[in-house]
Amino acid sequence: MRPTLYYGQLAQLALAASLVIAQTSSALAHGIAGERFFPATILTDDPFVADEISLPQVTTSPPAPDGARGTDVEIDLAKRITPDIGVIIGDRWQRLKPTDTPAVTGLGALRTTAQYQLFVNGPHQALGLLGLTATWAHTGRVQALGAPDFTTLSPTFDFGKGFGDLPRSLPYLRPFAITGNLGFDFPTKVESAGSPNPTNFFYGFAFEYSFPYLECCVKDIGLRAPFNQLFPLVEVSFSTAMNRGLGGQTTGTIQPGIIWAGPYFQIGAEAILPTTRLTGHGYGGVVQLHFYLDDLFPRSIGKPISEWW
Amino acid sequence: MRTILVALVAGAMAIGAAPSARAHAFLDHASPAVGSEVPASPPVVTLWFTQDLEPAFSGVTVTNEAGQRVDLGNAQIPRDSPAELHVGLKPLAAGTYLVSWHVVSVDTHPTEGTFTFEIKP
User: Fold this and answer.
1) Residues 105-124 of A with CB under 8 A from B
2) Sign of torsion over alpha carbons A223, A225, A226, A228
3) Which residues contact A10 (CB under 8 A, 6 or more apart)?
4) CB nearest to B24's CB, from A12, A30, A299
5) pLDDT tens-digit profile of A24-40?
6) What is the CATH number of the domain that holds A111?
7) Which residue from A minimizes the CA distance to B25?
């Protein structure tokens, strides 16, 4: 009887099988392309399928043009179905305080996203993802909070690119990375309560500098925790109406901030600065606590659903 | 509102502190240090990672500027230090050397990376 050896061999076989499955997939989740780790950004949708949860994200928006102020508490859950296909479900609790009436609270519209990991290029630290987000009608407080009474479909292309493939003679540029989104909002109803619902073109980018990449792959300058896990970044996002009498009207924000990424979760904080009069004035802020389910529960809910059995 | 937030954060921190959790293994530091200059040929390159490694699926090679391997091919993870990976080196001349590593953490997450060091007598 050699039960120890038997179980040992079985364990090795299981590990080898799981590694083969993991390594034949083009997507490793968790925002990794080659030696580049991309943290989950707050404003810019991530260009990778993942098993992660934002719990919570708290946003205080800049005052709107009419002076109203909003505070949101948002939760987003991202789950891989297969190594390359994922879904996201998210919602937010909102508090809106108009200038001359009492504050109102309630849920915003439910959002769901289906995603496909188009490519992961390790040597060039590049990621591409296609997504389709549905913002569902009548899932939030429509009249009080302005949640939509119509469904919006938003096809997007999300991408990421790390600059670690620059020549080694440019060492301090190699930790830079960019992620971005390009997409459209197609409302399923042309008008709500007398106001037009235009089709929007939206585009956003996150410019980040990776201290972890600097330390691991360029030059160890002696940073230690927590500073060697920081990502200073600037995110920008714009949305431009394309039709229904509102063509050319643009809203957008610039959000400078910082993300700290640990082994199991990350924390991010950004200021929110409106870029157009239509967006608002003054400033706001956002903080996010974000967990990596694939690292917390690598052998259960952190795996793609297709690998649960 | 504040109570809800505190409860959410406390719950989240509890999840984050789950003792059974493992994670991706990233390079913590190395000897010779990443991007460093050393005055003489080091006998070994040692890498320390943020998580324990799976020996059967982890390795490291060192190459010179011509792309030729200059390590001894004896990459090893010490039993008493499962987050450490080292490989012996042949005697090296002055120049720049590329260290390429690939590891699998004990929870099966693969990661990889490269860095250089320079011998400058």
Assistant:
1) 122
2) positive
3) none
4) A30
5) 333 355 789 999 999 99
6) 2.40.160.40
7) A263
Number of domains composing chain A: 1
Q: Judge whether A72 is closer than 8 Å to chain B, CB to CB.
A: no
Q: Which residue of A has its CA nearest to B108?
A: A19
What are the tens digits of pLDDT across the range B65-89?
A: 999 999 999 999 999 999 999 999 9
The contacts of residue A244 (CB under 8 Å, 6+ apart) are: A190, A191, A196, A197, A198, A199
Quick check: B109 and A291 CB within 8 A?
A: no
B108–A289 CB contact, under 8 Å: no
- Helix %, strand %, coil % of chain A (to 5): 15, 45, 40
What is the average pLDDT value for chain A, to the nearest integer? Answer: 88
pTM of the model: 0.85
Interchain contact A18–B (C-beta under 8 A): yes
The CATH class that applies to domain B22-119 reads mainly beta
DSSP reduced 3-state for B101: strand
Please say if the pLDDT value at position A160 is more than 70: yes
- Regarding an ipTM greater than 0.90, the answer is no
Give residue A123's domain range. 3-307
**What is the mean predicted confidence (pLDDT) over B86-114?**
94
Cross-chain CB nearest to A216 (options B1, B54, B115)? B115
